[in-house]
Design brief:
It is a single chain. This protein is of the alpha/beta class. The chain folds into two domains: about 170 residues, Alpha/beta knot, CATH 3.40.1280; about 200 residues, Ribonuclease H-like superfamily/Ribonuclease H (Nucleotidyltransferase, domain 5, 2-Layer Sandwich), CATH 3.30.420.10. About 35% of the residues lie in helices and about 15% in strands. The protein is built from 17 helices and twelve strands. It has a six-stranded parallel β-sheet with strand order 2-1-5-3-6-4, sandwiched between helices. Strands 9-8-7-10-11-12 form a six-stranded mixed β-sheet, with helices on both faces. Strand 8 and strand 9 form a beta hairpin. Helix 15 packs parallel to helix 16. It is globular and about 65 Å long.
Length: about 425
């Protein structure tokens, strides 16, 4: 039987600037931000082949930058030239032994900022095998928020993309954080376009991938069955950078703010807790709180006593991650037995990183825009997002339960035990991740 010849293959048109297919080009979102800081990006060759990398994007946004690809830099004339500028002494942006918090203790004057780009495994080896890099003064930072890199999983929440790191660090070095947030526009455009493209294509079995589905009502029964008991919480910490040889911080993380919001009544709780150990550098800037208010906060025992009077044994504590709840328990605070970690639930639903609570709310069709802060500082907005997400998920669970009314009903007690699977957190599993 005669079979017609398949149509000739036509490669997709590619943008010469960003090297992405024209349909996924993010160049219209690029910005040009002059800086006194000279940025030198050293990219591992494997990362150059990654279509969703961010080093090229960052270099296109920063006219005072250069991008080089390689592994061995000892004989690199280009790097030697970049490091020899007496007006801009070189510094390496990479965490490790002896790294100084660049936000709390920025270098004096303009610098040449060397940034290595690649996976954390590759960049660790790259720095170790190049004495010219390992010998540079080293700086690090604590990200003010989780990475928005929803299409690429980071090893931990404190890890961000190369572009996101430069947004934060240049904002601090140049004294204008808001100006450098414009660099996130092409980054977000790339992520949105990639997600849309993946949703439109067939997977390898010829089936379309499922759209993000609402989390299972079984795992969220506590939000629906006991909505009157739901209390959303968040905590902030004084967290010292890890500077010692064994990677430990000079002081452990310490709870300095605890806030809560009861969904059913709108009641709020907030405490600024005076640190019992030295306040970590940069804490005020990262939390959006005044350092004088933090140092003049109430005693830990008084704050925990007020919290114990606010919270009930029957409450359902709802959080985004376990960082805050772990801090509270480490400080001697009380938490009821029933807890729902919305971030863990969201990651299980998405099978990967989901960003912030506000980002996941948007993904489910809600909106974080226009919400009033529920506490002071950064925690106020984040708590508002957690509360809105909990309310949104409780509503979805109610709708799902109504549609399944014909099935035999289970008691609330059974749904809150095994029914919540491992997405409802027990005290024994409450650990810093």
């Amino acid at each position: 039987m005669h079979r017609p010849n398949p149509p000739a293959f036509t490669p997709r048109a590619t943008c010469a600037r960003c090297l992405r297919p024209v349909a996924l080009c993010w160049c219209p979102h690029l910005v040009s931000l002059p800086t006194r800081t000279r940025v030198v990006l050293l990219q591992h060759p494997r990362e150059r082949e990654v279509a969703i990398g961010t080093a090229r994007m960052a270099s296109l946004c920063l006219p005072n930058s250069e991008l080089h690809v390689g592994v061995d830099w000892g004989d690199s004339a280009a790097l030697a030239r970049a490091l020899s500028d007496p007006a801009r002494p070189a510094a390496l942006l990479y965490p490790g032994d002896g790294a100084v918090d660049i936000v709390a203790h920025p270098p004096e004057g303009a610098v040449t900022l060397v940034v290595v780009d690649g996976t954390w495994s590759l960049t660790r080896k790259l720095v170790a095998r190049n004495p010219v890099l390992a010998a540079l003064p080293r700086y690090a930072f604590t990200p003010p928020a989780p990475s928005e890199y929803r299409i690429r999983r980071e090893p931990a929440e404190s890890f961000v993309s190369t572009l996101e790191a430069l947004v934060h660090v240049l904002g601090a070095l140049e004294g204008d954080p808001e100006r450098f947030r414009a660099m996130l526009a092409p980054f977000r455009a790339m992520i949105d376009a990639q997600i849309a493209c993946e949703a439109a294509q067939h997977n390898h079995r010829g089936r379309r991938p499922r759209a993000p589905r609402p989390p299972r009502p079984r795992a969220l029964s506590a939000l629906h069955e006991r909505e009157a008991d739901v209390v959303c919480v968040i905590g902030e910490a004084s967290a010292w950078p890890r500077r010692t040889a064994d990677g430990a911080a000079p002081w452990p993380e310490e709870l300095i703010q605890w806030a809560a919001h009861r969904l059913a009544t709108g009641e709020r709780f907030e405490a600024l807790i005076a640190p019992e150990r030295p306040l970590a550098p940069g804490t005020a800037a990262q939390t959006g709180l005044d350092e004088r208010d933090l140092l003049g906060g109430e005693a830990r025992a008084d704050a925990l006593a007020r919290w114990r009077a606010f919270v009930r044994d029957t409450d359902v504590v709802c959080s985004w991650g376990v960082f805050g709840t772990t801090l509270l328990e480490a400080a001697g605070g009380y938490l009821p037995a029933t807890r729902v970690d919305l971030r863990r639930l969201a990651r299980a639903d998405a099978n990967g990183n989901v960003g912030s609570a506000g980002a996941y709310l948007t993904r489910l069709g809600g909106s974080p825009d226009g919400l009033a802060d529920l506490a002071r500082g950064r925690a106020g907005q984040r708590l508002a997002h957690i509360a809105a997400l909990a309310r949104h998920l409780a509503g979805q669970t109610a709708e799902s339960s109504a549609s399944a009314a014909a099935t035999p009903a289970r008691t609330a007690a059974s749904m809150l035990g095994v029914g919540c699977d491992d997405l409802t957190q027990s005290p024994a599993k409450n650990r810093l991740s």
